[in-house]
Amino acid sequence: MFQAGVGHAFHLPEDKALQSVTSIPANAIDLGYRVGYARPGYDADLVVWDAHPLTIGATPLQVYIDGNPQLKHQIVRESMGTTFNEASSKEALPVAPKMRTELEPEKREAFCSKSRKAKANFVINGITNSFLENHPQMPTVFRDVSGGNYTLVVSNGAVTCLDTPENCSSAVARVSADANVTTLDLSNGHVLPGLTALTAALGMVEIATEESTGDGSVDPKKDGNNPENLDFAKYGIQLEGKAFSRARIGGITRAITPPLSDEGGFVNGISVGILTRTDRTLLDGGVFRPEVALHVTIDDKAKVSVGTISTAVKKLRKILVDGKGKHNETTFGEVASGKLPLVINANNHWDIQQIINIKKDFPDVNIVIQGGAEAPLVALELAESQIPIILTETRPAPTSFRHRDAVVGPPLTPSVARILSEAGVYFAVAIVADSEAPMDKVSMHEEIS
Question: Residue ranges of the Amidohydrolase-related domain (predicted)?
């Protein structure tokens, strides 16, 4: 349904988008005479949704197979706060989501040309929500705006007004004197700080399937306990490529990228923090933080390097012990003292419990868990240990035996984010898979470093 929703957003008609996941595949496997349609005489295989099925986040309230309901009302209620019977009493009919607006090529090129100019001027109307309340770089007068109809004025590349249209009238008049001012009239516009992305490959490789277009992959067989063997993404980063443009379109202004580790491994290396803008290089501020975190794996991929996950846990403890001892003046020393965060890729809740024990034994270490498919099972312990999570799947599916207890979310369980939030766990959200999204977004719920 997600892909059907994406197709509809890009102007695939509503009926065709729905047919792409119902009648068309049914006919393709020669079963169109009994499934794929809601018709008399056909199998009663039906799904009842809480919203239009092409809408982002639409969730089944009930699933029927051969006319038999598959979901228990009590479980659905606990996970979603409503049930099929309650939702069916509503009179409003579901409405298909809006399609993306498409401009004519000439208008789009003209708009992009104007907006890319340095110190451009903008007037943006129709903003209904602002999420700049705690943004440190915004003047207090702009952070504290209230109401439901804002105008944003940008002059010479800086925000000069964010307020009601009446209060911004003088700022609008000043920038409107410039013939190159760009005016945008939005419908239900939102303004928020630029997103920071945790990525798998942005700036490290241009084409994921062609190794020659990037820095190369970390050797998983190297001794990860030797600080001399660490790979640093800052030495291989390149600030160009199509993925950078896609990242900016998605609202991403900064990205964090570790060294490539296509084959997996225990120690992945040191990530780098980069800007996604095109007017910066490695010599003039394109890297906002040369060393962001040490990335390691306590999951199935660690077996490539060390054979077993238990060995990976033991070696990680050795890294931290040596960081306080013979390697205290190396990167491992910075990790052991908490100066450099330690990002641990883990999903299995038993592995996460091992990480919590590590935090107890090494309280100075700034641990962040990446993955967290089963983190809700130990949410209270994570909150007590003050270990934040970067969720790489908000609705995880058990893709392997060791991930069989993944908390899949509504309608079978409460959402992962809800469980973590209610337990007091700080978390962010990311999608770190090259095939899914090279500009993998991180939506910060709380600052984690």
Answer: 11-58
